[in-house]
Amino acid sequence: MNLSTITTPSDAEAVFKQANRRSIVFFIITLCFLAYCTFEYFTTTNGAFRTCLKVFFWISLGCWILISMVVLWSSRNDSEELEKVDAERIGKFSLQQVKDIFAEVFSNTPGFEKPKVYISYMEVLNSWVFNTLFNQYQHTNAVYITELCFKKLSENEIKAILYHEMAHFRKYIYMENRTMNFSMFFFFLMPFAFTALVPFKLLKIVYVVFAFVAVLHLWNKIRAVNDLEAHALEFLCDLEATKHVGKLNMINALIAITRENEPIIQKSQSMKDKVQKVVKPPKPRTPVDWAHFDTHVVNGKIEPEELDALHRTLEAVENPELMNAELDKDAASHPSLSKRVLFLCRYGHS
After folding, report:
1. What is the DSSP string of 95-113?
2. Measured between alpha carbons, how far is 182 from 215 in angstroms, rounded to an integer?
3. pLDDT tens by residue, 86-114
4. Can you give the residue ranges of every domain in the chain?
5. Which of 330, 333, 315 shows the shortest CA–CA distance to 283?
6. pLDDT for 239-274, tens place per residue?
7. CA nearest 312: which of 340, 347, 348, 345?
8. Which CATH class is domain 79-175+228-347?
9. pTM of the model
């Protein structure tokens, strides 16, 4: 299957299923390779080889732990477990209202494990989840949501993004996320331990180059991740959310997040990003005139009476741009806002 874009839910499901299979196969292959390395470690009579296996194992493990801890720290550093929040209010909601929102979302998305809830105090509208195989560590099986969401979003919009995240937690997630990229470090580093078996320095250099090329080739064949795989997850999770809150709330949540985060994104953009836009400008897009649909209540949100007009407007424009914002551009992890809104207009549950 070679799709260049996702236009229907069946496309998204097909991309997800294929990528998920590749993700699992890659994990199994890495485990088998580690088992083989373990066998060699305990059976080889070559002391240098045994030492190399040990060194590269600990380097791989150390890199994985270090990167994982950095990722977890970035989430935990400015977060607080909901059960330990002692403030009376979170944003414009009372603490009990927030707890009730999560209780409702969790009751409607049952599963084997119930994630912990953390309130993040980062100055951005965002929510994310961790769901790993390491169930004993609660921070890696949790839902994070920023306090700013409770200031800027309505209750139904908050529920929309939480249902989206729970779709990631319960269903639409790859093995790399479940293991925090465990396989990648061992897959890329352990083959270099076999350099100890190669005689002569020149041949060792040749082997290192060969191993590097071979590992990259296998990676591309087995598990190279592309943007489409991440986009499929977002489309599918958006659709799952609409089953509970309807497409209007999901659309308005996405619009609000894009609008509120744009000043923050612009402020944090590096000079490299700005130069890249000049050197390699994005494909031209057609700005959408909000006056064509934001007519019932002119407030920058989509009212029920405006939804059909929004859909017609997006369908009438080739490569539409709903907002002049970074989140309305395709990224490695997310499709553009316009694509997500159009997808929801077409296929979302009412």
Report:
1. HHHHHHHHHHHHHHS--SS
2. 16
3. 889 999 999 999 999 999 999 999 988 88
4. 9-77+181-225, 79-175+228-347
5. 330
6. 999 999 999 999 999 999 999 999 988 887 654 455
7. 345
8. alpha beta
9. 0.91
